[in-house]
Amino acid sequence: MDFNALIDWYIENHRPLPWRETRNPYRIWLSEVILQQTRVAQGLEYYLRFVERFPTAVDLAGADEDEVLKLWQGLGYYSRARNLHAAARQVAERHEGVFPTDYAAVRALRGVGDYTAAAIVSFSTDAPYAVVDGNVYRVASRLLDIDTPIDTTAGRKEFAAAAQRLLEEFLETVGRKGEGAGRYNQAVMELGALVCTSRSPQCEACPLGTACLARRNGTVAERPVKQGRTVQTPRWFNYLHLVDRQGRTVVCRREGNDIWRGLYEFPLVETEGEYDFDALPLPVDGTDWVWRGAVRMPKHVLSHRIIHATFHRIELPDLTAGEWPEGWCVIPVARLGDYAVARLTELYLSRAAADGSHQKG
Ligand code: SF4
Known about the structure:
By secondary structure, the protein is an alpha+beta fold. It has a domain at 233-355: Nucleoside Triphosphate Pyrophosphohydrolase, CATH 3.90.79.10. Helices cover 40% and strands 14% of the residues. It has helices at 3-13, 25-35, 40-53, 57-61, 65-72, 78-94, 103-107, 114-125, 134-143, 153-173, 181-194, 213-217, 343-355, and strands spanning 233-244, 248-253, 264-265, 268-271, 290-296, 300-301, 305-316, 328-332. Strand 6 (300-301) and strand 7 (305-316) form a beta hairpin. Helix 1 (3-13) crosses helix 11, helix 5 (65-72) crosses helix 6 (78-94) and helix 9 (134-143) crosses helix 11. The longest helix has 21 residues, at 153-173. The N and C termini lie far apart (61 Å). The model is unreliable at 357-361 (pLDDT under 50). The protein binds iron/sulfur cluster.
């Protein structure tokens, strides 16, 4: 394998991103958590925002969860934001605020898996741990022409071992000064992102092209192999967008072990299927409510769920006069922007603001 060519290619072609210019493990960790399931352009904006607001793990540890979630808003996968916050607190408590660079200590932090731990320690100290992310799966499956499905336990094991072998081969054969595990890991991931892409790999321009077994065997388009699709469970969310004549509304914080924990939303009635407003099992007596119509949102697809959401707009004379279930907070409509909400609610709010009206459902 011509690893020198890979490193030369990387030096010449990599995208200059701020987390690549640093050896600071806290910043590398932030970027890794933000970039999971996020496009680089979008992630960059969030990374800069987080670094500016929380320059160190101690700053992040001292923040309110609401503030962290608000800063995270729009990125989705909110458990990552909660884990980020919890891990910063672990760093403050266990490591006196100094972000660790030892693999076991990093791996023990909340929300840090094998990939993130390997990325943090190799990028910050060149510790010899191979990273295995989606790009590495693709590159390794093609380079070595492996047909084991990547989404199986056997596949994950085999690819972790293969990636580690490739890294060790690199470390033995590339004796260039300053070229360690960090640079190698970055280079393989960047190759997967820019050259060895899913749909149109540019094998002609690939620095590892001569050694690539899938290219030789004509199997590039079939690698990597995936076993199955994730099952997405449908859910039906009926939101009560209550407003009163004084310009107030009601929001609730999501609690429990479910999606969007810690985020705010309008009072929710979840049903087993699609219901008209009249048939909804309301959590309170709604006799003085005036229903002003509903907005049915397009299907909202998450990794394991499809949400069918309807927002019912309801007017009532005075929200402060009612007896509401625990957790319902009456707030001025003008303050809605201060609360961290899921993308679905954000989409509804911008649609409602743009329409200025609500279709009948
Ligand atoms: S030769 Fe093609 S398939 Fe093989 S690693 Fe390079 S880009 Fe990927």
